[in-house]
Specification:
This protein is of the alpha/beta class. It is built from 10 helices and 25 strands.
Length: about 500
Amino acid sequence: MRTRTATHLCLGMIALASCTGKLTSLVPDTPSKAPDYFCTWNTQGYAVSYTGPDRMRSAMTEENIFGKGTHQNWVGFFPKIRRDLYFVMDDSWDIPRDKNHGNGNPHLGLCELDEGRFPSFCGTPAERLGQLTRRIKQEGWKGAGGWICAQKAGGHEEQSEEEYWTERLKAANDAGFSYWKVDWGQQDRNEGWRRMLTRLGKEHAPDLWIEHAMHGHFIRFSDVFRTYDVENIIAQPLTIRRVAELLPHKAEGESKGIINCEDEPYIAVGLGCAIGIMRHPMDGNLPDGRQDEVFPPVGHNYKRCMDEVVRAVRWHRIAEPFGVDGNFEADTAMLTDHWHLHENETWNKGRQAGTTLRESAPARVSRNMPLPIVDDTTETRPFILSTAYPTGAVAIAAIGRAWGREYVCEEAAVTALAKDWHAPIGLFGWFKKVCLVYPGPIQSKPRMLAQDLAGDMPVDITTEVAIEGSKLLIPGEVIRRVGLMAASPGDLSAPGLVIRIIAK
């Protein structure tokens, strides 16, 4: 059994003798078009030590987003992948600064940048929002977005729903505002209302991503659908199960039907999903000295796994997430994770220390390809996720397990079918070995290149892998060594690499 320890970090410092400066990066320099984003909610929480939603809302200010003080400069996060991400402001960018209470707040759903919270931006609602968007883009982000309450604000009773939301969609379009994260509110489970919003968005703001949530079947008319909140200590099986439950649906008409599986980047790449980053680089205890209860330093330890975010987002430059089409397979065998809860390890106030949390998910899930064969039948074997992307690229992800008080990363041997020898291969996680089986043998003697997705330079692994007829055999040692070559000091992320077969 492999449990994650600091000793794994040294693997990222090992260079291959075959490395040469003459090679070109396997990761395109062009940012992806994926609807990936960073959302500020947990950053708001950290800044105020998670002392209640009202104080978290109060932290949504221009000073915190752009300032250079302690726990500020949120636009300075993720420098390596910022241009691939939308910067999404969570609750309450559109609420007066002194109105931070939740339910019953008459300003919920206003969708106009608040002048008190953002005093530097002036003019009409569309002008203010446009100035903010341009400022965020100047900091290197792909675009700007915001959390949207699923209801009209008070004082607009004379307007119909269509009139009200058409006005705000037009303002977003004029401002170049790129993302609406439509969440809870009076209309949050109203299918007709959400369909209306999507229809109006395509008409009046065609470049705006509108993300829906709540009922799984909403994905059929959504461009993006979010799997929703999880407790990070037990997040992986719950997220995998939610994704698997969405995969039988088919996107309707022009709807894109992309799943956003939140802050689970390796699940995202393993199943063709978008990423909604909630973690942030402000590490350690909260400002008030308590342990960070949302990202506790146990289990998967998200705050010490920032490299996996970089690797997954950069994979989307190679293979973008795609919509549900009903083409998937899910294992009938289920794996169950469990976590023995200690104090300050979850945001869920209904949990008591000393209890054991349990969540289950299919042991294997695949999209557009058969389920891989896994040689491991132990209780602690990893979840194996695999996807053949519409571009031909193949991704396989091994997801670790919450097991008592440890995050277990068992190494499994995985065999999967692939179609195109020359399509990119993405491998994420710890493996004993990976065997890819193609329809027939490759026609020429190839050159094999591999690259840590967090890095910028490939290495030649031709002599370290084996081709046996129609099979490509990739040893786990190669995956570990190359997939961690660009690891950040102290980072605990599992390997993540891309492999390309280059004709000589």
